[in-house]
Every structure is written in C-alpha cells, then in structure tokens.
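Appendix C: a fully annotated inverse folding record. The material below is reproduced so that readers can follow the format used throughout the book. The structure is listed first as tokens, followed by the designed sequence.
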C-alpha cells in the first residue's frame, strides 16, 4: 500500500520571529501566525535561542507572512525568512539626516520590502573607532524584476540642497568604468585619462591649461560622432579634450546646488551631447551643452569654467585653417573607424562596451548613452562627409563578403521566400537602422525602398497582401521587414530609454525639446497624456514621430501602485489618470499655466494654506472654481495616493527641478473596436505585452507591425488547411514546420502558398479542401443609397454616414461568398431599427424613414454562410439636427432685485440642442456683438454648463452686460448655426431687455393643505404677482407624475372634477419667463376616506395559552387607514350600546398623525358577563365619507384557529393542463384569512401562478387552472393574524406532482436518401414524468413497423433501414408514451435533391456582343449532390421581371456531380436593359428537387470604347473606382456642404470644381492619426485598349499604340501639402506601375486642371496617389476625372512636373540608391 505521509518541509518554508519579550509563550506566537495564514497551515514550531522558528505548509504562505508581519500583545513584530528569497539592497551615500521613509517611498517602485533598513558599520579595525557607522543602509526586498537585480540612482532633497543616493543589489561598482573595487572619485581609468590629457596634473588647473581652440576642435569632433550614434568606440576618444576631467567628483554628502550663471557649458573632458530629435538650430554648438533640468551634474556633466561662462572659442566667428584641417582629419579617421565597426554599432555604448540598465525579454540591453533622434536636414558639410563615409560605395562588397554567394543566387532568382526575406532585412534594410534610430527620413524614401523590397521578394508577382509577409513565420507570414514599423519600434525604444533607463546623458536636452509642446513645460509627462487633444507644433519631427508611435499602444496604469515622489509630478492637464472635468476649459488651463501651476505638486503647494495665492497668480477670481478643481483632482486619485499627496512633509521634499522614478505603464495593442475571432489570420495574444519598462524590442516591433497593418489584415482568414500542419504545436498551427527539414525550401514555398489558400499562377481559387470545394467565406461592404449628407472614412476602415433628421436612411450590405451568405442587421443598443419589424433586419437593405436623432449610432451588417467566421462590418450613422435656441437671463449672485436696474451685471445665456456642436452669434438690435467690440460687453463660454431642461451640445455662449447702461436696454437676438451642414438653416431667438425685466413671482389662492370630500370638484388657482416678460404658468406633480386625466388646465388654473382618493397628493405651480430661476409654489390635496378595516384578538400575553379564559386579559384591536389621519375617530359598542373606557375596559388610540390608525380595547379580568359582540366604529370628524364598522364576537366559542389538510389530499398527482384544487381546512372562531405560498428546495419562496409572492383565500381553497410541470413541488397554507387571533400562525404543506408526456427530439426532420442505401432513424427522449414504463412504437404512415419498451439505461430508440426501396419513402413516426401521454418524432424520408447554390462572385459574368442583347454566365454548385440519386438534369426557368410568362428548358447532366463542382451555363440573347428571374430545379429519378431563384440585372460596362469615361464622384459607387488595399489610408468622398465643423482650417476646397457646395469630390484627410509620408491610393476600373487602334497599320510603333487623354482637376491648398502622383498600371503577366504625372507643394486655394497622354499596350488602370505632408494642413482633392480616346488637345508642356522647389542633395537619397543597387545586383 502506498504511503500517504506528507514530505518534510524545506528550509524555504520556515520563518524566524523574535517575540517582544522573554515571557511571551510559543503558543502566543503561533496564534498570531495563524491569524495571518490560517492555523491549519502551521506544521512545526520551536523556540531557538530568543527566537521562535515556525514551519508552514506552503512557500507562498511564507511570503505572505513576511509581507504582513504579526501582532503580538498589540505590538507589530517583523517576520524574517530562514532562507532569504528576498534580495539584499544596499543604499550608499545616505546622510544620517535622510529618513528611511523617503528611501522606502522611492525604492517601493521596484518591489516590496521584506525588512526594514539597518545602518552598516564603517568597518574600522581600530577598537576605538568600531562604533563609527557608514553612510550605507541595507534592507531586503522582493524585486519585481525577473532578474532579481537592481542598479539605480536617485536624488533626495533636504533643506535647500539635493543628495545623490545609489542603490544596488550586488557589489558596488565604479560608475565611470564599471569595474568592481573602487569608486568613481578614485577610478584609475579616470585618473589616467586626466593625466594623459593635462600632463601630470588634473582638476581645474589641467582644465584651464587647454586652449579654447583645442577644446572647440575636440568638441566639434565629439558632436559629430555622438550625433550619428554610429561610430562605436571612437566616440569617447574623439570627445576627450586635452586637460582631462578634473571636474568629476564622487558622490558626497555635501548638498548639490544648481549651476549658477546665465548658461551652462561642457567642462574640459566632458562629452557635449545633443538630445534626440534636436533640429540643427536647436543643437548646442561645439563645447556648449544644453541647459539641464536641474539634475545633478556628475561625472562628465560639469559646469564650464565654474561660473557658467562659455569657452572663448565660442565667441569667435571664424576658425583658423589649421583648425579646419585638424577637424577634417579627425572626421576622416572617425568615419573609417565607424565603417569598420558598422555591423556592431547597435550594441555599442559610448565607450565601446554595452551599458546594462533595463533588461528586455530577449536578454539584450538597451544602450543607455546612444543619442538618437537628431535632425540632420541642415547639417554642415563636415558632418555630412562624416556620415556619408559610413556608407558602402557602389559595388563595394567589403562589408558583405559573407553574403556574396547569396547575392549571386539572387541574380538567378534561386532563393526561397525565407532566403529573400533574410536578404531584404539583413542586407538592404539594416544599412538604414543606425540612421533611422536617430534621424527622420526625407519624404517618400521609405515608401520607395519598401516597394523595391516587395518587388524583389515577389519577383514582380504579387498574389497576397504585403501585410501578410510582415507577420512572423510562426503566424503565417515570412518575417519580411516593414521599415515603417521598424521606425516606430525605434521611437518606442528611445521612449523606453528616456523614461526608464539609468539616466542617458541626453535626457536633459531631450527634456528641453519636449517641453516645447503646448508651452506646458511637460517632458516625460507627455507619455501620460492625451496628446491628440494637445498642440504639438513646437516639437521637432523626431519627438513628434515618437509621440505618434506611442499611439500604437493602449496605455494603462495601476491604481494600487505604491506612490513615490513622482506623484507630485503628475500633470494636471490632459491626464486621464487624474481627470478633472473643470480643467477641460482651455481658458482655465491657460490661466493656471501662466501662474506656473501645471502639476499636482504645484497645485498642492499653492493651495496648502489658502487658495488666495493661486487666485492672485492666476487671475482666477472664483474661489469656488479653484475648490472645485481641488475636489475633482482629489477624487480622481486612488486612496493610497490621496493619503500620500496629503503628507506635507513629502510634498516639501518634492522639487520641480528634480528627477523621480517614472510610474509603471502597462501597454496593450491599440486596436480600437477590433476583436479577434476564430479563424482569423491576425492574432494579438502574441507577442505578450505587459510593462513598458521591461518589454523587449522584438515584442515592440511585432506589435507595431500588427497595429499598423490592421486595416489590411483584419479581413484575412485562415485557410482550413492550416490545421493540417501540426495543429497542436501552436495556436495558429505550426507554420514554421513548413521550413524545417526534411522539407526542401522550394517545397516549403509551395506548401506556404497552399496553406494560404491561393496559387499565384491561377486567377481562381484552387480546389484545396474536398469538403469546401468552391465555397468561400463571406465578405461584407456597406454602402449608402439614401439621403446622406456626407460619407467619411475613419481609422480601422469604419465608415461614418451623416444624415439630417427626418430624412430617409438607406444602408445596403453588399456581400460576397459561396454559398450566398445570410444577412442580419443589428444596432449597438439592440435591434437595427425601433420602427422596423424583424423581417426587415434580414434584408440586404436597411431602410429607416424619417430618421430621428435617437436612431443614430453604430449599425452592423453580419453575413454568414457556415464557412469560416461570419463577416461583420459596421457603419456609424450621425444624425444632424438643430433645435430652436432658448435665451435665459440672470443677474450676478447677490444682486437679484425686483427689476434689472443700473450698475448691475446681467448675463444672457443662449442654449440650443444640436449635432454637430452649435455656433452662436449675438446681435443687439441690428448690430453684431463680438468680443472686444464694446467695453461693456463680454462674450464667453462658462466653466460649468448648467443643464436644466435642455440638453446642451457643443458651445454655450453667455453674453455678459457689465454695469448695465441705458444703451444696453435693447432687443437681443441669439442666432444658432451649424454652418448649413446638411442644409440645416440657422435659427434664432429674441429677448427684449428693459428696465422692467424681472424674474417671476407667484402666489396661490387656496389653502394648504386643501382637504376635500370624494366626488367634489376642486379648482387650484395660481397667479403671477410679478415678472417681465409675463411668465408662463404650469401645474406639475412631483416625480414626473401625470396630472389627473380628468383635470383641465387653463393658464394658472387647474380644475379637477369628481375628485377621488387616488387624485390626492402634492401639486406645484411653476412660473417661468427665462429670467432668473423659475418660481415654484406647492400645495397638498387631501381627499377624505377610510380604507382597509381589520381586527385581531390577542390573548393574555402573560400566559402561554392561545385560548381566551375567564379571569385573564384579552385585547381586541381595530385598524383603519384614514385621510386625513388627524380627523380619524373611533367608537366602541358592546351588543349595540356605546362603550366607554373604564378600569376593566381600557380603550386606547394610536397617535393621530399616523395614516394607519389603531384602537385597542383591553378587557382586564375577563368575566362571563363580558361575553358579547363588540363593534369598532371608525369615522371622520368632518364626515364626507361613510363610516366603517367591525364586529368581533367574544364568547366561550371564540377559540384560536387550527389548520389541517383533508385526508388523502396531502399528496396530489395531476396531469399537465388539468385544474387542481389545493385545500386546507381551518377551524376556530373567528375564521382567519388563509395565505398560500410556494416552497422551493432549500427553503426559499417561489412565485405563485399570477406572479405574486402569496395569495389570500377566505375558504382555504386554492384553485390552479391549466397546471404546468413548473408548478410541481410543495405548497404551504398558513393562517394570518388579520380577522383572527394574534397568535403564532398555523400552517400545513401539500405536495403537488404534475405528470407530463415525454419530450422527444427531433420533433420533425427531413432525411434525403438514394435508393438502395442503408440508414438509421434515431428518436431521443429528453425528459418525461413519470419516467418509468416508457414504450415506443415505430410506424411508416399507418403501417406498424416495431414496438418495444425503453430500458432504464437507454433513453433513445432507433429504426434501421437496410436497403431503401421506393415503398420506403414516406413519413416515419416514433411515439414514446407514458401514463401522461405520448411524444412523437417525425421523419420525412424523401429522394428529393437539395437546392442548387448560385455562385454570385463570377468574374466577368455579364458580357455583350450585340447591340440589343446581352449574355450572362450562370454558375452554381449543388448542395450535397451525393446524398440522393444522381442528378440527371436541371430544369431552367427564365422570366422577365414585370411579366408572368416563364420560358423553361432542361440542362442535361452527364456523369456524377462532385461536391463543390462549379457548374456553368451561358444565358444568351437577354434583352437590354431588362432584368430576369432565373429558377433552377434539379431532377433525379425520384423527381424534382428543391428549386432556387436569383435575379440577373443588366449593368452597362465601363470602357473607353464608348468614346469617353467621365466621373464626378457624385454617386456612391464612385464610378467603379476602388481603394487600394496596400496603402496606409483611403481617399474620402466628400462635399463642402457636409464638411464637419471640426475640420482643419486653411486647407482643402470650399466647393467642388464646379463651385457647388453640394457637389462631391475625393480628398485625403491628413489629420491624426495620419503620419508624414502616409499614402492613399485610388484605383480606376480596368479599361481594355481599343482593338481597332491595335489592329491598324503597324508602319510605326507609335501608330500601333492606342492613345488616351486623362484629364482631372486637383486642389492642393495648405502649408503642409505633400504630393499628388498619377500612375499608369498595365495588366500582363506582371503588373507594372509607371508614374506619368506628379505635383507637390502648396498650389493655392484654387482648382487646377491636369492633362496626361496615356499610351497603354494592354488593359490598364489609372492609379491616383495622395501623399500626406508634414502636418495636418495638407488636404489634397481631385474631381471630374475623364478619359477620352486620342491625344490631349491642349497637352501640358511636361506631364511629369512639380511646382515645389527642388530638394537639396541628402544622405537619404544615397541610402535609397544603395538599396536599389543591391537589389538590382541580386536580381
């Protein structure tokens, strides 16, 4: 027998606890431990020395106990591990006056503390000095890093100084050279460098010895080398100036002060660094570093000259010839060194060694001192030569010697796909990585290089989207490099180094550049903000691209994160983590910014004692507004951070000029509303993202690839063959297995094509899956065919339709797929339309007439046909409307009087509900009022919008009249406008302001409360006692209740005839004239009445007996509900005579204020003479309603109730549908009311048949009609105290069992079988009661086949047919019976063929070869052709739409039709332009099968053979133009009349080419998230060349080539205009794109015309390409495209032209040339 003995605990399961005293018992310690981890988890314990050692069951409980500690005798005791899983952290350079709490708060970001701090001894050997402590402290921590290591430094403020503190988990190293055993101040490398540079001396003397000219020379070389970031080890040597580094100092305990003087410079020996992204004009000159952010300067960071003065060389304008020669020589040497080191530059730090600060998931490090991002567009000739020399020369394979064989193979096209991807990434694109890390490429270079790489990969034969190639191999791609995603990854890695690295040396200058954004002074803070709402125009292109790349991630933060001093750095503006609705006001933010209050620390310090300081500095006069900001900011913070922020000591330690640990950020891909579904190729669970601090570069790049290409990849589906390749190896199938031995590379390429479901040489899909055949999953596209104002494209290809309220919305869902997909429309919040039936939801067209604003939202079209995942597309419908504006008038608080008089401030508020946001214009009389036009008038937006009865959208304009003047008494008009969007006109409201204008006041002419009798007619009168304009009076009830339907309202009079008790309650009269606040007065109507008369008898409470006995007390209680309660009065009668209160007959009443009045009659010492009938009479003093009398008999027969169930009725059995009577017999006098309820299993209460919790019965009988199986169970009857004895209720229980016949499946099923085949029919039992003695009976028609009984183990029965014959066709039934009835399964066995499925996606199905008729290629597949007999023929029916006559013919079929086989039949001589209904019916030897129908619609083909092609983009179909799937974004169809009010000004056309604001055109929207260089491509339909021209005499090449004239209009207005390119794409074995026209730059606010001569040799398309420029003011539009046969009549002088100035030569052009040359050589 196996042993069950528990293994002994390990050392890691033990802890050590030192009790607070010697008299503490072990048992007390164990009880304290058990309270934290559970007493059952303590297994071993013993006292050892002065401590108690405890062993626990599990190791996680040890961690929990160490973190929580224990409480022994009300004192906290630290718990220490026996085996220390925590990491020892040593903190050095800590002055004794720095508290441990400050260290703990800073280090808590890197993990949890498992112990407190202890100070380390200095370690003096002399006994007299052994007591001296060092400036080091030690603690144990559980680090959150997976490497369990920590190397960090931070600054601590004390008093007026700062102190640098270092924390390490290992041996202390030199912060200069990295060696163990010495500090930086005594670094031998540092000393040798100083001696070599300055002779025998070092320090200030040596630094002073260097001449200004030498310092400038060395600094210039260093600036070039550091800016490129690519020279490797030579950077440090080139930067070392003569004189050494005497300014460097080790960390000391002296306070570090800020640099003095007007500027800072680089000391001799320091490396002058430039921040990433600094433009040429921002870069510091040689020898002068950027001003720091107040960070302590250590090591190489020092103040030049000690007083902040700049080197003398900086002041001179010229340089000597010797200096120029020296610099040139140094640059040449640096370039040669860099070229030799080029393949290793990426991992090299400034000293040639890698600096490890933040580990990534690949185990590599981030170089902390590499300075990326400097803009090099305007660099000097010396710098250009230095960088150019790093590039390989044309034909030079010195750096590529390992790739020479590969290059030879590429020439012969013998590389596999994997080899091509490897060459493209490693040989070509990698030559750009070092520049892309730090520089911003010129426009268009990356696109050209990417296109060249794709052409190289495919050899010109593209057959799958490029985005698929960029995916990793394990996810179905090829790992081909995506250069734009790589650039985004570089920017994100630079951001990672900036936020979390060990202080790269360029962080100070980077902070200066980042603070330009929005003039808010934020640097790292920008990565916490909603930058899409900010003004980023001040940023350099590098940092702008960094923030653009940041949008790839969705960023979140943890609320329970341990706070540090960074909390006081939290930005106040655009911060979702600390969101304040009040701070959404731009004017408020501007006032706070000017006051220097932009961070949480600023706000706390400025309001620490009083808000007056902030008020004085910010010109904010409202104390309430500042308090509101404080409340919202405080409420937004989590509780732990709120407590931390309220600590004044910690706030005083925070300094605006110091660096603090950046908070942890958790990232995930920003995919919007995209959701991963089964069967999709794209998958976001990989790579795994968590903390931005630790994410690796590979994960960042893969995420960039997927997010940037989401638009192209979201429609890609997995092939059903994917699972055949080792499906268990990975979630998406092991794609990598295709390229593993023994599979050959070329074979792997073919298999990769197959698994992706396409073959390049075949224009149709291959027959890959025998089950799938020609079937294809569905695709969906949504178009609008109704009355839309505008159609726009948003990110992730969602379309936005704008429509005016009241118009007709018509959405059409265009689908492809085979079989034909089923369509369903849905809406975000339920059904597709509240006004449509369910039938309309399944049509292709969704139509909503007279659309309302509430019907706007997101609509989804879902198509599914059982293949793959359903296709879903969404469109957002934006309903535009404008309501009439309302003007309300208010006086300033505290100044409201009876009228508006002189020297008072008046506010006129104009509010209108609209979409889009409304724009307001104020007029006084006929004059327009604007801000500044009148000193006594101010127009502004309020900080808080008061929403009363109007919904406020957009702006709310307030007109402020300061110190009311006589001319201010006038007519004011508020004009609301949405700028004629959707042809919605402006609306206005008028208000006349005079010296009589006053808020309303009212009075009520009635009593309060008003008491009336039922049936009376009452009138409530309300009169206006003041107000101008005259107020409007209305009557309302509180809570939104409706007024009585019989009530009549006439102004301020409300009349209610024949009032009832239900009409009682509160009524309010409200007066409003839009001046001040509405006046309101209320009254209450009380309708006299008595209701709910009840009684009960209470026996003597002092005896445990429920019976009434002589000599004991008995109480009779009577209760009535009265209105009004104070008029209720009771009277008691005995045997008809009045009864008064006495010593034995005590009559008491409850408080008259209670609506339920109760009167009690206590009979003391009951006697025989007290027997009789007692009557309780309730009435109202004022009458008006009948009185209520209740009789109670007290006699010897008055006994408490008893409850029983009749014999044989305790357990009832009924059939489902019967009527059941549940009966309980009650005895006693008086008989009480019986309450019935249901008992659920477990003791709960169920619902009665009518839905109530219980029901009452006077005779004890509960009748249930049409009983169901759900009512089976226990039913309880019990007595109530009403109208009976007030004693413990009596109760009884009845069990009800409801029997029902068997429930079976399938109820009805159709089985199709061929003759001679065997099959089985199965009938399954689901449930039945009783479930015993079940019998089954099979029949065919009326003929009995078999009978039997179901066993207890089997719940189904089957009937087997061995060989089907003609007599076997028919209806089979199976009846399963029990005592309650029978359940039937029905099977219809037939030989009918299944329905044919039309193929709707036939390429070129319609053709025409005659003038009056056309032909159509009809294609279909047969559903389940092998299920029945062979299909012999199809009966084809054809009927012209609108007629009733059918033409029929048979299409014979020879041979057996296979599953998925595509059948074709050509219909000819169909009359133009009629539509036809086609019916197709399969025929077998059984007879006709199921038929299917479709409609064939004629559409005229588009072809230049018709002499002319014209397109003005006025229709939704875009004249068959289509969006290219390989671009970054799409063209948008637009009209000026429907342009969004939030559009970008100073760019784009104001009308179409014809000047109409309602006309449509195509344009590119360049606002965010578009990036510089993004392209949108629009493809024309395919045109066939004129055969006549081709067949003409070929005397010359020109005469045999047809000519066409392409003409179009363009609009290119804006300072950020990119380029407009036109390409000619010719069809053939390979598609080729030739640029035939181009134009770039701002062309002014006008439409221009372009004409281009085209000479295609094959079928062709025209491709219009718009390229986004450097900013948002770069919209490009096109309109009225025409193509005509023949040359252009007025051709332009040059089809290929550009009005922009020619660009200067740039190093990036050389990079592009190099890459193209390399690709050409490989080919």
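Designed amino acids, in order:
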């Amino acid at each position: 027998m196996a042993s069950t003995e528990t293994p002994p605990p390990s050392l890691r399961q033990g802890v050590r606890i030192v009790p607070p005293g010697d008299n503490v018992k072990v048992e007390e310690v164990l009880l304290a431990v058990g309270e934290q981890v559970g007493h059952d988890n303590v297994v071993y314990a013993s006292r050892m020395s002065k401590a108690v050692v405890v062993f626990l069951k599990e190791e996680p409980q040890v961690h929990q106990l160490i973190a929580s500690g224990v409480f022994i005798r009300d004192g906290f005791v630290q718990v220490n591990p026996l085996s220390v899983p925590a990491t020892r952290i040593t903190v050095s350079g800590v002055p004794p006056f720095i508290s441990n709490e400050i260290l703990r708060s800073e280090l808590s970001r890197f993990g949890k503390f498992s112990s407190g701090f202890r100070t380390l001894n200095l370690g003096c050997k002399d006994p007299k000095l052994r007591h001296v402590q060092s400036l080091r402290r030690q603690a144990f921590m559980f680090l959150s890093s997976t490497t369990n290591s920590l190397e960090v430094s931070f600054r601590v403020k004390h008093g007026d100084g700062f102190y640098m503190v270092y924390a390490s988990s290992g041996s202390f190293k030199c912060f200069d050279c990295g060696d163990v055993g010495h500090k930086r101040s005594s670094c031998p490398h540092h000393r040798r460098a100083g001696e070599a540079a300055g002779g025998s001396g070092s320090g200030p003397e040596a630094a002073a010895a260097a001449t200004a000219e030498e310092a400038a020379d060395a600094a210039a070389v260093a600036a070039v080398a550091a800016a490129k970031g690519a020279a490797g080890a030579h950077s440090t040597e080139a930067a070392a100036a003569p004189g050494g580094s005497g300014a460097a100092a080790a960390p000391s305990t002296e306070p570090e002060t800020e640099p003095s003087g007007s500027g800072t410079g680089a000391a001799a020996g320091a490396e002058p660094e430039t921040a990433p992204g600094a433009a040429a004009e921002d870069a510091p000159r040689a020898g002068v570093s950027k001003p720091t952010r107040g960070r302590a300067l250590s090591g190489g960071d020092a103040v030049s000259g000690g007083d902040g003065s700049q080197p003398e060389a900086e002041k001179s304008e010229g340089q000597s010839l010797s200096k120029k020669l020296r610099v040139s020589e140094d640059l040449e040497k640096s370039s040669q060194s860099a070229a030799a080191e080029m393949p290793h530059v990426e991992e090299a730090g400034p000293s040639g060694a890698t600096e490890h600060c933040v580990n990534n998931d690949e185990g590599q490090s981030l170089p902390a001192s590499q300075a990326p991002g400097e803009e090099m567009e305007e660099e000097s000739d010396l710098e250009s030569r230095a960088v150019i020399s790093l590039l390989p020369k044309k034909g030079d394979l010195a750096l590529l010697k390992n790739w020479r064989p590969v290059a030879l193979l590429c020439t012969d096209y013998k590389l596999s796909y994997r080899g091509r991807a490897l060459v493209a990434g490693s040989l070509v694109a990698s030559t750009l990585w070092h520049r892309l890390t730090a520089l911003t490429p010129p426009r268009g270079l990356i696109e050209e290089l990417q296109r060249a790489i794709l052409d190289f990969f495919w050899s010109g034969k593209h057959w799958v989207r490029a985005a698929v190639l960029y995916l990793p191999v394990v996810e179905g791609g090829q790992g081909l490099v995506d250069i734009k995603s790589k650039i985004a990854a570089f920017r994100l890695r630079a951001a990672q180094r900036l936020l979390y690295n060990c202080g790269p040396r360029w962080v100070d200058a980077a902070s200066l550049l980042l603070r330009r954004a929005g003039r808010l002074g934020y640097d790292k803070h920008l990565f916490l903000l909603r930058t899409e709402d900010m003004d980023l125009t001040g940023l350099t292109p590098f940092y702008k691209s960094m923030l653009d790349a940041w949008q790839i991630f969705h960023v979140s933060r943890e609320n329970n994160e341990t706070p540090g001093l960074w909390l006081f750095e939290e930005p106040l503006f655009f911060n979702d983590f600390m969101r304040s609705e009040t701070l959404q006001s731009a004017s408020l933010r501007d006032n706070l910014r000017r006051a220097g209050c932009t961070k949480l620390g600023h706000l706390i310090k400025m309001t620490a004692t009083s808000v007056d300081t902030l008020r004085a500095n910010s010109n904010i006069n409202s104390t309430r507004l500042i308090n509101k900001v404080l409340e919202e900011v405080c409420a937004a913070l989590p509780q732990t951070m709120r407590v931390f922020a309220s600590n004044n000591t910690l706030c005083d330690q925070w300094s605006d000029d110091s660096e603090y640990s950046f908070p942890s950020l958790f990232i995930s891909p920003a995919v919007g509303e995209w959701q991963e579904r089964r069967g999709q190729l794209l998958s976001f669970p990989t790579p795994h993202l968590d903390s931005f601090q630790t994410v690796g570069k590979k994960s960042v790049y893969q995420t960039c690839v997927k997010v940037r290409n989401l638009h192209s990849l979201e429609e890609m589906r997995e092939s059903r063959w994917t699972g055949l390749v080792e499906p268990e190896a990975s979630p998406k199938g092991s794609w990598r297995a295709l390229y593993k031995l023994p599979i050959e590379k070329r074979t792997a390429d073919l298999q990769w094509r197959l698994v992706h479901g396409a073959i390049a040489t075949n224009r149709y899909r291959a027959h890959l899956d025998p089950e799938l055949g020609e079937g294809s999953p569905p695709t969906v596209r949504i178009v609008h065919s109704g009355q839309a104002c505008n159609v726009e494209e948003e990110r992730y290809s969602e379309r936005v339709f704008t429509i005016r309220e009241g118009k007709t919305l018509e959405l059409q869902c265009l689908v492809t797929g085979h079989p034909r997909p089923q369509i369903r429309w849905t809406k975000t919040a339920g059904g597709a339309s509240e006004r449509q039936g369910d039938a309309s939801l399944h049509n292709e067209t969704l139509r909503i007439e007279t659309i309302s604003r509430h019907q706007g939202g997101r609509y989804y079209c879902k198509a599914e046909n059982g293949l793959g995942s359903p296709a879903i597309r969404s469109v957002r419908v934006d309903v535009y409307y404008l309501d009439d504006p309302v003007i309300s008038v208010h006086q300033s608080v505290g100044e409201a009087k009876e009228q508006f008089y002189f020297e008072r401030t008046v506010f006129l508020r104009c509010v209108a509900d609209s979409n889009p946001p409304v724009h307001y214009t104020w007029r006084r009389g006929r004059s327009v009022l604007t801000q500044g036009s009148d000193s006594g008038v101010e127009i502004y937006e309020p900080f808080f919008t008061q929403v009363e009865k109007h919904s406020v959208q957009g702006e709310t304009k307030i007109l402020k009249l300061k110190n009311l003047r006589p001319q201010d008494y006038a007519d004011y008009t508020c004009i609301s406008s949405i700028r004629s969007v959707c042809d919605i006109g402006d609306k206005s409201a008028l208000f006349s302001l005079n010296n009589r204008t006053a808020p309303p006041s009212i009075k009520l002419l009635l009593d309060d409360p008003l008491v009336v009798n039922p049936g009376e007619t009452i009138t409530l009168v309300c009169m206006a006692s003041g107000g101008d304009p005259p107020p409007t009076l209305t009557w309302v009830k509180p809570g939104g209740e409706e007024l009585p339907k019989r009530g009549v309202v006439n102004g301020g009079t409300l009349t209610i005839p024949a009032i009832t008790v239900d009409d009682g309650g509160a009524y309010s009269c409200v007066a409003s004239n839009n001046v001040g606040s509405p006046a309101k007065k209320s009254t209450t109507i009380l309708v006299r009445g008595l209701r709910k008369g009840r009684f009960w008898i209470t026996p003597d409470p002092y005896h445990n007996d429920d019976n009434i006995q002589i000599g004991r007390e008995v109480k009779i209680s009577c209760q009535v509900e009265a209105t009004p309660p104070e008029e209720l009065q009771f009277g008691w009668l005995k045997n008809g005579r009045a009864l008064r209160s006495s010593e034995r007959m005590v009559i008491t009443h409850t408080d008259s204020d209670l609506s339920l009045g109760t009167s009690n009659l206590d009979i003391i010492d009951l006697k025989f003479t007290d027997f009789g009938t007692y009557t309780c009479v309730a009435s109202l003093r004022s009458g008006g309603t009948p009185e209520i009398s209740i009789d109670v008999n007290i006699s010897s027969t008055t006994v408490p109730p008893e409850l029983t169930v009749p014999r044989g009725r305790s357990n009832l059995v009924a059939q489902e549908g019967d009527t059941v009577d549940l009966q309980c017999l009650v005895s006693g006098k008086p008989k009480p009311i019986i309450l019935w309820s249901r008992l659920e299993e477990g003791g709960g209460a169920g619902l009665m048949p009518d839905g109530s919790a219980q029901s009452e019965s006077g005779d004890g009988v509960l009748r249930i009609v049409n009983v169901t199986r759900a009512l089976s169970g226990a039913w309880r009857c019990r007595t109530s105290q009403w109208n009976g004895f007030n004693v413990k209720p009596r109760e009884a229980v009845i069990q009800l069992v409801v029997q029902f016949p068997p429930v079976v499946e399938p109820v009805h099923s159709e089985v199709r079988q061929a003759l001679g085949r065997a099959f089985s029919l199965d009938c399954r039992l689901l449930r039945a009661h009783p479930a015993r003695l079940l019998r089954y009976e099979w029949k065919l028609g009326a003929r009995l086949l078999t009978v039997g009984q179901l066993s207890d183990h089997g719940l189904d029965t089957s009937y087997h047919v061995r060989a089907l014959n003609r007599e076997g066709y028919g209806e089979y039934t199976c009846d399963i019976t029990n005592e309650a009835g029978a359940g039937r399964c029905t099977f219809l066995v037939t030989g009918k063929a299944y329905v044919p499925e039309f193929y709707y996606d036939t390429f070129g199905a319609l053709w025409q070869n005659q003038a009056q008729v056309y032909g159509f290629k009809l294609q279909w597949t047969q559903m389940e052709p092998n299920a029945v007999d062979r299909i012999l023929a199809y009966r084809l029916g054809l009927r012209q739409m609108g007629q009733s006559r059918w033409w029929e013919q048979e299409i014979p079929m020879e041979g057996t039709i296979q599953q998925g086989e595509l059948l074709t039949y050509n219909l000819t001589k169909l009359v133009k332009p009629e539509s036809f209904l086609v019916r197709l019916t399969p025929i077998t030897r059984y007879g006709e099968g199921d038929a299917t129908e479709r409609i064939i619609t004629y559409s005229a083909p588009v072809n230049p053979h018709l002499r002319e092609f014209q397109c003005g983009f006025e229709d939704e179909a875009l004249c068959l133009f289509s969006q290219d799937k390989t671009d970054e974004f799409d063209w948008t169809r637009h009209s000026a009349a429907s342009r969004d009010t939030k559009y970008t000004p100073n760019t784009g056309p104001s009308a179409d080419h014809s000047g109409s604001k309602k006309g449509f055109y195509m344009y590119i929207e360049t606002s965010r998230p578009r990036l510089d260089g993004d392209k949108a491509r629009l493809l024309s339909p395919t045109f066939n060349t004129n055969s006549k021209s081709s067949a003409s005499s070929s005397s010359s090449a020109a005469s045999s080539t047809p000519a066409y004239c392409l003409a179009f209009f363009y609009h290119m207005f804006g300072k950020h205009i990119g380029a407009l390119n036109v390409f000619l794409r010719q069809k053939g074995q390979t598609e080729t794109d030739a640029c035939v026209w181009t134009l770039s730059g701002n062309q002014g606010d006008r439409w221009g015309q372009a004409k281009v001569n085209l000479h295609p040799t094959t079928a062709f398309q025209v491709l219009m390409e718009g390229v986004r420029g450097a900013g948002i003011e770069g919209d490009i539009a096109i309109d009225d495209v025409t193509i005509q046969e023949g040359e252009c009549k007025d051709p332009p002088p040059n089809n290929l032209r550009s009005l922009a100035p020619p660009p200067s030569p740039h190093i990036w052009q050389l990079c592009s040339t190099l890459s193209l040359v390399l690709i050409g050589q490989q080919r």
